[in-house]
Amino acid sequence: MRKGFHEFSEKPKRFYKAVETAAEAGGHQVLLDGRAVRSPKGAKLVLPTRALADQVAAEWAAQGETIEMGDMHATRLAHTAFEAIPPAREATALSIAEYAGSDLLCYYAEEPAALTERQTQLWEPILTRAEAELGLSFVRAAGIVHRPQPPATLDKVRDLALALDDFALAGLAFGTSLFGSAVLALALQRRWLEGEAALAISRLDEIYQEEQWGIDEEAAQRAERLRAEAIMLDRWFASLGA
Fold first, then answer.
1. Residue 76 CB contacts under 8 Å (≥ 6 apart), including other chains
2. What is the CATH topology of the domain spanning 86-239?
3. 136-153: per-residue pLDDT in tens?
4. What is the rounded CA–CA span in Å between residue 96 and residue 176?
5. Where in the chain is the domain with CATH 1.10.3580.10?
6. pLDDT tens string 61-86
7. Measured between alpha carbons, how far is 104 from 182 in angstroms, rounded to an integer?
8. 3-state secondary structure of 62
9. What is the biggest distance separating any 2 CA atoms in the chain, rounded to whole angstroms?
10. How far apart are CA 137 and CA 6, in angstroms?
11. How many Å apart are CA 153 and CA 102, to the nearest integer?
12. Which of these, 111, 184, 212, 214, is most buried using a 10 Å CB contact count?
């Protein structure tokens, strides 16, 4: 029987002992036995703040005998911010605006009433604050039928994204996808709420269903993975001084 690729592939072994950070022209680096971590294309990874370098360094220091890149969320996001975002800023901002065009927080459940009330209680204050402080305007809808948002709102979301530096923009794009909501990602980036709270708000429907019917092991593992990513992103924005 022919073996699949996964049966031959092995996780890379840890090849270093010491992990530290050091100042570098234009920012900070993570050093593994004195050698700088490099991006996928081979450039020395330069991070904008010492706090962010410490966050990435902590992931490298936490590795055991093998390197679990799938668990190194900040490292992977740092590579994206450093290498992938600069040539794709416009496209990234546009994708965030497109999320806002069908933002999760604008689609309330028609029933049950208990879920709708919970959504109103937790979603409406964030939407209202985004409208008041960011100059946005959102159309609320009941059910899943798409309701277009004002073009001016989408343009404003794009402009807000483009006003960020590459690392904050990468975080905003990551959060938008993680939460299914550009509004929640903007709220986290502006420190209106914490990462775990933003994730819980984005998962209101799932959490409600879990309360009614329970949660299986696969769903629990997925929820824990999302929680780890939300915690990472919260620290990411804090490390950027957002």
1. 69
2. ATP12-like fold (1.10.3580)
3. 999 999 988 899 999 999
4. 7
5. 86-239
6. 999 999 999 999 999 999 999 999 99
7. 8
8. coil
9. 63
10. 48
11. 12
12. 184
Instruction: Return the SS3 of 240.
Output: coil
Q: What is the CA radius of gyration of the chain?
A: 20
Q: How much is the mean pLDDT over the chain?
A: 94
Tokens of 66: 């093998």
Cis peptide bond prior to 112, omega within 30° of 0: yes
Provide CB contacts within 8 A for 63, sequence distance 6+.
14, 72
Reduced to 3 states (helix: H, G, I; strand: E, B; else coil), residue 4 is coil
Residue pair 152/205 in contact by the 8 Å Cβ criterion: no
For residues 10 and 19, the model is more confident at 19
CATH 3.30.2180.10 domain range(s) in the chain? 5-70
Kindly give the pairing relationship between strand 141-142 and strand 107-108. Answer: parallel
Which tokens is 209 given? Answer: 């269903």
Q: Reply yes or no on domain 5-70 having CATH 3.40.50.300.
A: no
Q: What is the pLDDT of residues 161-188, one digit of tens each?
A: 999 999 999 999 999 999 999 999 999 9
Helix, strand, or coil here: 5? helix
